[in-house]
Amino acid sequence: MGVTYWLTHVRLETGYRRDNGVVSGTDAALFHILIKDGKFARITPATEVLSDGIDQRDAGGLLALPSFVEKHVHLDKTLLGEAWRAVIPVANIIERCEIEKRVLPGLPTTTQERAENLLAVLLSYGSTHVRTHVDIYPEVGIANLLEVQKALETYKDRVSHEIVAFPQHGLLRTGAKGLLREALAQGATHVGGVDPAMVDGDIEESLHQMIDLAVEANAGVDLHLHDPGHLGTFTMKRLAAMTVEAGLQGKVAISHAFALGDIPAPEAEEMATILREAGITIITSVPYSRVIPPVPLLHQNGVDVAVGCDNIFDTWQPYGNGDVLERLWRLAERSRWLDELSLSQSLRFITGGKTTLDANGTQLWPAVGGDASLVLVEASCTAEAVARRADRKAVFFKGNLAAGALDVVNAEEA
């Protein structure tokens, strides 16, 4: 992390243009950014002549955005590196799990190799932080965790991470509590769970075991909740109550949360209040095939929302390309975010809450002293990058070029 250089001719957003009080466009200008020890050390207009002898990398007018956060992926499930195969039809989630248990151990590639293949793809699209779920169940113990940790070690200078110890086949159904405890002791950062009613058959006990493990290990919680309607919202209410009781506010997430999209808006607003007060994050993969949580309503009511890709070519789905910006584009289209401000501000859902400008047009990012993790894209502004799914040309993680390429100008050549 000791490298020092100027990233020159970087396009940064500087404010919004307004027409009769309505945001009609985004202003941007070119800057030079000094990167030192993985941080933004200085930001100066590109009109300044650099004569300090420090090496330079020319961004060529590309737009800089905060690097992306992939909040929901399964590194241990992907088939990337294997020959093409479509998905075998099943009647329910239990059958799907059984197929996966049969297929994955017999593959010629290792879990580590496939996880590294997926990490390379995620990084190429701009994600420098991932939250990966790793299946934990009796037949494999914590073997998947150990393999994924090897892959993450390979990418430690390019990607940061969180790991969810995930009892895909049911926490109660497979008696996995002891294995999850072992996984947490071996480096997992979150306790996972899936459909306490439909998979585990006992909402209270399933949630209690998740919370108990999280408190014991000082870990977070990430519950996969596919259950629809009032079954789903009841489960969320119980999780919210237990979260507050355990003092885990800000450390709990619900992935999918389809039930929030099944209920009327007034009830969804009531649920938003419950989720906000419990500090629970909602994570959506924006699937085409299901109703999704009402992201605009949740955000307006103070609920943290994040977007992730979820399945990427595995035994569950033959789809997915690892591009979380594309998932945001999908969310923007479904949410009818058509104007400059809505598109620009939507970036927060794939950057861990970061936007380049606040709603008033004040520049928030980049800031001197902040981590120099960024993506250079071919776009004039954030709104265009989201709406047009801008090409990513270079990705930096804490000052280091992690993917893509830029021209390097040595000090004596500058």
TrEMBL record:
Keywords: Hydrolase, Metal-binding
Ion transport listed as a keyword: no
Annotated GO MF terms: deaminase activity; hydrolase activity, acting on carbon-nitrogen (but not peptide) bonds, in cyclic amidines; metal ion binding
Pfam families registered for this protein in UniProt: Amidohydro_3
Sequence ranges assigned to domain Amidohydrolase in this UniProt record: 58-390
Statement: the UniProt record of this protein carries the keyword Nucleus: no
NCBIfam families, sorted: PRK06846.1
Protein's UniProt name: Deaminase
Organism, scientific name: Brevibacillus nitrificans
